[in-house]
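Task card 7
Instruction: Convert sequence to structure tokens.
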Amino acid sequence: MHKDILVIDDNPDIRFLICKILKDKNFNVRSAANYDQAVLEINKKLPDLAIIDIKLDKTDKDGIDLLKLIISKNKLTPVIMISGHATVQIAVEAIRIGAYEFIEKPFSTEKIINYVLRGLEIATLKQEKDIIENKLFHSFDLIGKSQSILKIQKTIDKLSTSDSRILISGPTGSGKELVARKIHKNSNRSKEPFVILNAALLKEKTYEKELFGEEFDDGNISFGALERANKGTLLIDEVSEIPIETQANVLRVLIDQKFKRINGSKYVNVNIRLISSTSKDLNELVSTNNFREDLFHRLNVVPIELTALSNRTEDIPLLIDYFKTKLSEINGFPQPKIDIKNDNLYTYNWPGNVRELRNLVERVTILSSNESKESINKMINDILNSAISINNNDKTLIEKSFSSPLKEAREHFEKEYLTNQLKKNHGNISKTADFIGMERSALHRKLKSLGIKGIN
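Output:
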């Protein structure tokens, strides 16, 4: 199938020349002579690549505006900007916004062909990467024979023709995002975007921006999750973490199906399916006035509850067998000989749920190539015993904190917390400071006061 290229230039000679060069190379070529024609062509069908002259017929709109329009529809679409009298500042601005390349007039046939071929090649590689990553996630299914899993599978099937809002609850690692993806994949919106907003990872001041987007004085727009998910599905992960002030604005969007970007003056209309997930009890948060009751009822149209893995141990053999097959295929290792009769697999509490089991199988798959069933069994027991020891240490720390004066308990917690964060970031002070929302210099002082000297 030939690639579709859109050429936008108000100079008929230049437009004709570029179109002829591309047609001679067997591309499907469309053209537009002005801004309004270009918008019509873009809305009719997004091209595989666009070549846009910066200066067009409209004084208030130019090629940069068309570049923004294309990027807003698909950021992977390569756009080549051309101009005969552009400044370095304009060229830098075009690249910053998302243009693939900037070419000054006059240009040679060889140059335009090279840029087009390279742009299409890079776009194809990026699209293939996205497809592979998407398939990789979608390759995991909701596995189990327990009554709770069978009930959820039936619910997902029933939701395929519905646009109802869904609230998925369950402990960390139980598969809430996987269920949301399956619902989207089975729905009429499956070909539209699936966007995730992880409320637990956002800083307090960024919720509104991440949800609604922002408009800047220079005309640039930062699109929020609501706009990026338009016509598709938005998953708000850990919805309980959204500040109470922002919850009122989310409620208003659900009622009106429109919102204003930060610093924006015009309403943006959206048509999305909203799925929320939580590992906390929203009913309890409502009763303590930490979550809006009216928002809760609008989110909780169809509730789906995932149970802890320790409460459905009959699914463990199926999950192990499934993950062995998938992870061996992904990592290129032979399937490990895991003894599914190992009692420790069923008596262990699995605080990380299915995610923790999957990580265990992946670790064993990579580390136990061609090992015997006995040695793999020992490895699994060592891993689980180590995890139990860590969990017990955490409990000891909590008990110690409760039996100490407030100042001492706070110091115990801060020391343990900062030590773990530094280990996660391999001792990098800057990364740790950024993650915990603390100034680098303030973190240095805190580490010194707590006697934390270094992390190996």
